[in-house]
């Protein structure tokens, strides 16, 4: 057996006789074959999704390969696949790359020489993420890639309307990293990233920011490119955000771009006076359910260029002495209760952020330089979108409502054994959480997403 093949068959120095026996049943023998068996067989579905939508072809056209030598083992696109696919499979750090480099599924995903040799090592992935992708032009291209990928998804499933949700989040830090700062609201040292999602849970754009900036800081840098992307599409446009984004310049931009918006307002004396009739306790014995009252009126703050519609909601909860009052500024013409229900749906953006945190682990930012963290947040965003796109397919009823966490733990984490022949590579998959029939239906749904040919 050639030395390289022996090393791949028995990684980490395990010999052919390096198995283990178990006392409860001496017939049982455990052997480790890192290059023949994978725990991530379901990733091959996402590689098919990548091929169907041409996602990494877009990446290859957008990024510059700054390597000057001629001995590069893996292509730029291959390295780009290994980064987000590894994160999608719950390997959020380049420290995992040495083990993944021998994994047969990851080698197949990377392609090229990796199929018969191995994928990129930890040192190769570290150089890729901190040297090749770190220059300004590649960071700008990376920041634009989530939007390009979502556009590719829209080409195959054109939306009739679009709803954008903007929100900030926290990424705690635990060292003296560049740009980290104490944030009093979150009560920790952190970064303070900003996200823009659409109603399909796709992440359109994200921006990493220093930890001590205001929640709306840099909103235009995040939102303006997204608005430009939808400008040429014939659809209705909506926008939602919390009170941190109650900014006159934002209202004016949205109105100029024909967006309907609902943005929460912080209460003040003028607004409270306008709804004073809702603040009096209703006559009679309080019922054991929540009573809601609405009022809409025209309001113009001193910094606004014109008066705008404001909707107030007062909720009387059983046992409360005072009502819970909230205000929303909007240009929607619908009834007040409909507008408030529409605004409340922005809570789904918080759920998308939680999935990114706990499934993709995009808070894993352990470098020293701020620009390296910018790169890694974008790679996490791409991994998140690959998972999100699968949920847009016409999936079987059994898994149609799975969260990204369930997709990762039950669909991606499928045991797989590779059998290689001269002209064929076969992956034998375990049939536990996902049956052969469901797997086939998922594959058919992915192939049905193939977008129409682009005009020349």
Automatic annotation (TrEMBL):
Domain of life (superkingdom): Bacteria
For the Transposase DDE domain, which residue ranges apply?
Answer: 21-450
Membrane-spanning intervals of the chain? none
Tell me one Pfam family matched here: DDE_Tnp_1_4
- The entry's protein name is IS1380 family transposase
Identify the species of origin.
Answer: Psychromarinibacter halotolerans
